[in-house]
Amino acid sequence: MASFRRVVCAFVYAGYIIIKGEYLLKLRFFLIFVRLYSSNSQKKNLIFTEQYVVFKDVIGQEDVKQLLIHSAKNGKMPHAVLLTGPAGSGKLPVALAVARYLLCHHPAENDACGQCNSCKMMDHLAHPDMHFAFPVVRKKAGRDVVCDEFLPQWREMLGRNPYADLQEWMRGIDAGNQQPQIYVRESDEIQRKLSLKASQGGYKVMLIWLPEKMNVECANKLLKLLEEPPLKTVFLLVSEEPDLLLPTIVSRTQRINLKPLPESDIERYLVERYMLPVEDARDIAHRSAGSLLRAVENVHLGEENKLCFELFVNLMRTAYKRDIRSLKAWSEQVAGMGRERQKNLLEYCQRMVRENFICNFRQPDMVYLSPEELQFASRFAPYINERNIISVMELLEEAQVHIEQNVNPKMVFFDMALRMIVEMKQQ
């Protein structure tokens, strides 16, 4: 009944927008709206609906999937696997699919059966032999927390979007300005959990998402576990920045590097999932640069992306006008955002600077900008050139380092904005 009401509301909305004379512009979003809300799931899922990931749900990465399936079927699964690759390539979904396959009582040729008791428990990420570690923040000052305290939010996020990134996770746990971390107390929990006998008589799986966020003491304790792993235990490490891991940890894992997703795979997914016209799906797939997460964000035109675009445009325009007062207001606005959002903004600015620089070379197939971004670039691109591209990128990277080091954000962003005045005059 609830789904029916949502569909009726969608049709009402469609009538409204047609009356407003916006039929051609809005019809596509109406179809997406109906598709999303008429699904069996009642969750607000970005990518998947209902059950957690199996191999067939993972977009692309066929070579990686077959490698892991073959290792599991033949009893040659490494005790520790390090999955790396660019954001949105599917590292976490692959890890979840591997875990399900290892724990499945009756695995098929290329996937978990989906019917056994183990698979049913994995549908809710509630398998007693499936354990997680991921970055969290303190609820109270001076007290380390463990991941189990955040399991409901973790399950909710993965059910909604297994391609989620750290920023989405931080919003999900209301991290604010706190820096996420895997605390030393977590290593004791990992050791305790893995010391127990497997309740189902098979593997025990420990999935560590973003192990580079472990503090030093926690990383050293994990190293000891990897050196002497418990019997029939598989560690799945999913890393965005493997260079930040202890070299001794990396050396005790089998590293598997995921490649950016082919545009054809992303295009096919967008057509099937969101019923986009092929031309639109192809355009979004091209702009996603191999990231399914970025592609979905482009489909949904998220408020976060809009905000980053507006802040970037405002920064560049006010810096060019040498409007000190407006730049100060801009820096105070950004300083009021959480640190993860600040870092996301700086990453967005770096991307926009690179893309605008490439625009100057008249190679449209190498430009990954939305229509709105491209419209701005048509006027702004000449201001990013050979004379200032390196210094502008260094300025943004320096600000990002300072934010990661917990330097006062008002000072960081106002200083960056003032120095941007000089760079915008380098034409």
Features:
19 helices; Zinc Finger, Delta Prime, domain 3; Rossmann fold; 427 residues; mainly alpha; 5-stranded parallel sheet
Could you explain the architecture of this structure?
The structure is a single chain. By secondary structure, the protein is mainly alpha-helical. It has 3 domains: 1-38; 55-257, 3-Layer(aba) Sandwich (Rossmann fold); 301-424, Up-down Bundle (Zinc Finger, Delta Prime, domain 3). Helix content is 55%, strand content 6%. It contains 19 helices and 5 strands. Strands 2-3-4-1-5 form a 5-stranded parallel β-sheet, sandwiched between helices. The chain is globular.
- The CATH superfamily label of the largest domain reads P-loop containing nucleotide triphosphate hydrolases
What string gives the helices and strands in order? HHHEHHEHHHEHEHEHHHHHHHHH
Q: Characterize the overall form.
A: globular
Query: What's the arrangement of strands in the largest beta sheet?
Result: 2-3-4-1-5
Summed up, the helix count is 19
N-end to C-end Cα span = 61 Å
Mean pLDDT, to the nearest integer, reads 85
Helix percentage = 55-70%
Oligomer: single chain
CATH C-level label of the largest domain? Alpha Beta
Derived structural class: mainly alpha
Total strand segments: 5
Q: State which percent range the strand residues make up.
A: 5-15%
**Sheet with the most strands?**
5 strands, parallel
Q: Indicate how many domains the architecture comprises.
A: 3
Q: Give the second-level CATH assignment, the architecture of the largest domain.
A: 3-Layer(aba) Sandwich
Spans where pLDDT lies below 50 across 5 or more residues: 1-51
Radius of gyration: 23 Å
